[in-house]
Design brief:
With 264 residues, the chain is of the alpha+beta class. It is built from 11 helices and 14 strands. The longest helix has 19 residues.
Length: 264
């Protein structure tokens, strides 16, 4: 690592002030991406601001017809929460499938969505569950939050404080995972809200996206068979040593069908 100044503020206001005063500060959530990056000397922040001592950005509660989860809430807490299991069980299942036990006990919701990794799981839920991302300055619709690979709508110095997920009538997440990292080679979140259906895809492209043709078909007939013959084009999808763009396009349909079947 390069040398940096470490801060551990106890309030959100202090954290925001430190961000404003620092030359090139980085926020530390669970550290599952940032710490390895620092160890490899791929980043050189002037300051590291650890949010772990701020109580206002932790916890889970029912709120406004859904669930509000603090940004510093760890994946394992979401996975094992009685509230999440009762209100949006698909969200708990998604959290249970993130990484391994060590990652789930350290990684945080806020850290995951702010990193905006194209293969991360939470972005599919943020968009699929019509979430609202709350910051220390404003509220951002989940549909508008992810803007590209490792890019979000956050402004410099803006801190995510919580995410509110709307409660669906039915929902499920299906993932074809990398066997080593457990990242999504392709993950599909399906959620039904009355006559509206959302099908959101992670891992396949540079950023999470909605499969609108599938949404239209499922809104008319919410069965896996309704997706027969519907495919996502391979153009613009990710291609790497793990899967080609064509294979990822094929997996989108397969995972979408599995998610619909899991909705019951």
């Amino acid at each position: 690592m390069y040398e940096f100044t470490y801060h551990r503020p106890k309030t959100l206001a202090d954290a925001a002030a430190l961000l404003g005063q620092s030359e090139d500060a980085k926020i530390l959530g669970g550290g599952q991406t940032l710490l390895p990056t620092l160890k490899q000397r791929l980043a050189r922040p002037s300051d590291l601001i650890d949010l772990g001592q701020i109580p206002d950005i932790k916890g889970i509660c029912e709120e406004a017809g859904g669930i509000a989860i603090g940004a510093f809430t760890r994946h394992a807490e979401v996975a094992h929460s009685d509230v999440v299991r009762r209100v949006i069980p698909a969200l708990a299942d998604l959290a249970e499938g993130i990484g391994d036990r060590q990652v789930r006990n350290m990684g945080t919701l806020g850290g995951s969505i702010c990193n905006a990794d194209p293969s991360a799981d939470y972005p599919a839920a943020v968009v699929g569950l019509k979430a609202t991302v709350k910051t220390d300055r404003r509220e951002i619709a989940g549909d508008d939050f992810f803007t590209g690979m490792f890019e979000t709508a956050l402004e410099p110095g803006e801190i995510v404080t919580a995410v509110h997920f709307q409660k669906p009538d039915k929902a499920a997440y299906a993932k074809f995972r990398n066997p080593a990292s457990r990242y999504a080679i392709v993950g599909v979140f399906v959620a039904r809200f009355g006559n509206e259906v959302r099908v959101t895809v992670t891992g396949a492209g540079p950023s999470v996206f909605r499969a609108t043709d599938m949404e239209t078909a499922l809104a008319q007939d919410f069965r896996a068979e309704a997706l027969n013959g519907i495919a996502v084009g391979a153009d613009g999808l990710n291609a790497d040593i793990h899967a080609s763009a064509d294979y990822r396009a094929h997996l989108v349909t397969v995972m979408a069908k599995r998610a619909v079947e899991a909705c019951g």
